[in-house]
Amino acid sequence: MLRDIVTDDVSTLTFQKLSSFTSFTNISELLKAFVKSSTKQVLLFTVNMQETSKDVVNHLRVMIEESETRIKADFRKLFVIILHFPSSRLSTPCYSSLFLQGWDYTYLDVIGISASQGGALIDIREWFKQCYTTTPFTSTRRSIAMQLQSLLHEAIPVISSRVYFGKHPASSFNRPMNVMERNSALQKLFFDRKVGEILCDRFHSYWTPNVMVEYLEKASQLSQQHETSLSVIDSLQTIFKNLFFDFLVHMVYKMNQGMNIDVLFNHDSSGNVVELFLDVLRTIPIPKLSEIKMLGISTDMALRNPEEAYAPPKFPFFFLVASDVEKLVDQSRREVNQSVDMLSEYSEPRPSLFQTAEQSRVQVMADMLKSIQNKLEEMTKVGLSNGLKFGGGGYFRNLYRQVPLYCKKKFF
User: Fold this and answer.
1) Are residues 139 and 272 both part of a single domain?
2) How many angstroms separate the CA atoms of 64 and 206, rounded?
3) pLDDT at residue 5 above 60?
4) Number of domains into which the chain is organized
5) Whole-structure pTM value
């Protein structure tokens, strides 16, 4: 019924605060005018129950019911009363829903609490604003008060219990630790090494308006179908919190493959190594939000044998970087070979001397690409060379651009 009556044309709506009326006579005059109007379709009252008694609300309802009998048959009218209760009164029954013949009632949840009050994770008012208005979506960090940093402390024991770390006595991070030591190590990882801030930013990137609407509807359905005793906001915050914990569990597990986190705790790791670690962490692919729940429980069998000789990792995310370098060199080879094939296909026949020179040229390119691959592999195995600097988050983007570009400049 609301869809049929309420439109984007605000001229059909009459909005009033009950506190603005000084007498019931004024309310009666308003009701008469509304009933006779051919353009006004919705009369909306808002009532602050902190300063208004239930008896006043009941009398307002009686006046509306009497006015309803005078509505013309071809007029469609809707009366709405929104009762706003302070949060301190929500733990006890606020207003009786009995004897409401002819009235529908809906619980609108605690939408007045911001993220800065009562430890709320989500500013629900901003959440609704981003979901259901045409305001351009700019930045999740600026528009939604998601207090993820405060959740990191709470997440540490969860990660400690759900991620299997190595048991190598010589390891700086993946050595045997008791619960307190492991939690302390994760504390340093998140806050001293700045990893927590990056993971929070990566988690922020999921929450576009479409995703926000999707999870808001999920929380609403849970409440509407009585599958939970929590309010919509509490359900939404529970979903949000669980997703964040599952995300952290998965990311810490992925970060520590090959005991990679040791790089940040080795005494001989330079500032460039740490910077590169954080740079890679900002750019590595993250799973889809819908997949996080399945990925939230992780172990790594490769870390379970403490009798193997311990070789401390020197280069962060070595296996990931080595795989990308290999793909990069293969891509460069394909681009060069395609260009050579095009030249061979459309060129006029050449003397055998030129053909020999062309073959030598191709061989030089192949040798150059092989040399690049060997040099990069050597760099990743040995560590950072003295003259190589990583900064500004551009290492991998520059690497992908420069090698193919270098091949083209060199030979075409």
Assistant:
1) yes
2) 46
3) no
4) 3
5) 0.60
